[in-house]
Amino acid sequence: AMLRLRLITWDVTDTLLRMRQPVGESYAAAARAHGVRVQPEALGRSFREAYGAQSRRFPNYGRGQGLSSQQWWVDVVKQTFRLSGVHEDRVLTPVAENLYRDFCSARNWEVVPGAGETLSRCRQRGFRMGVVSNFDKRLENILSQCNLRHHFEFVLTSEDAGFAKPDRRIFEKALRLGGVPPEQAAHVGDDYTRDYGAARAVGMHSFLLRAAGHSEEPEVPPEHVLPTLGHLLALIEK
After folding, report:
1. What cellular component GO annotations does this protein have (predicted)?
2. Residues whose CB is less than 8 angstroms from the CB of residue 73 and which lie 6 or more positions away in sequence, other chains included
3. Residue 139: CB partners within 8 Å, gap ≥ 6?
4. What's the confidence (pLDDT) of residue 135?
5. What pLDDT sits at residue 213?
């Protein structure tokens, strides 16, 4: 039977937008502009370490602990470079500020193939649309610059909500913003726990964007799996 959906909510990172290049490449280029050479691979490893430590110490961009998300990110960038052997503040401060600004724009993000067409077709079918993303407040601007913002009635970030997926409260807030009960809503995302499982836990439908061969996660019914975004409407309208 066709799902009686009125609202579709969307994850962003690796669902609608992806980085144009690995984070280590972006960081290495920013350092080169200040005359500092660091291997992109080393920066990539250092970034994962710094980002992980900062996320554990100050979850959700430090929102509950009085940090601004800009300060949170500037600290991550500086620590990334320190772990890669760069310690001079006259380099770290401008590089961190430039990277914070650059990741605010379409310079470092690109639209996942098929995303724009799928969003347009969903809107043509009359679905209400919103974003539910573990992201900081730059997301509105990034979506605008990548020409996707107009598809959505609301953009709910974890920084705005005060809760990050898989916390059920961010999905409950999205349902209030969309004005629909959970059984009339579906969430689309690429993460089994934060997107698929968390949306289903509040009673929403959910679709998991997953390339073929990703089977290390728990089984998901095939009618909930999207090999590409282009498969979504066929599954909804089955």
Report:
1. nucleus
2. 61, 96, 99, 100, 103, 136
3. 12, 131, 133, 155, 157
4. 97
5. 58
β-partners of residue 205 are 186
- What residues make up the domain containing 120? 7-16+112-234
From CA 45, how far away is CA 150, in angstroms rounded?
A: 36
Residue 218: the pLDDT is 77
Q: Which residues of the chain have pLDDT under 50?
A: 1
Alpha helices in the chain (DSSP H): 23-32, 40-57, 69-83, 89-102, 115-124, 139-145, 158-161, 168-178, 198-201, 232-236
Last residue of a domain, one of 107, 140, 175: 107
Does this model's pTM top 0.85? My answer is yes
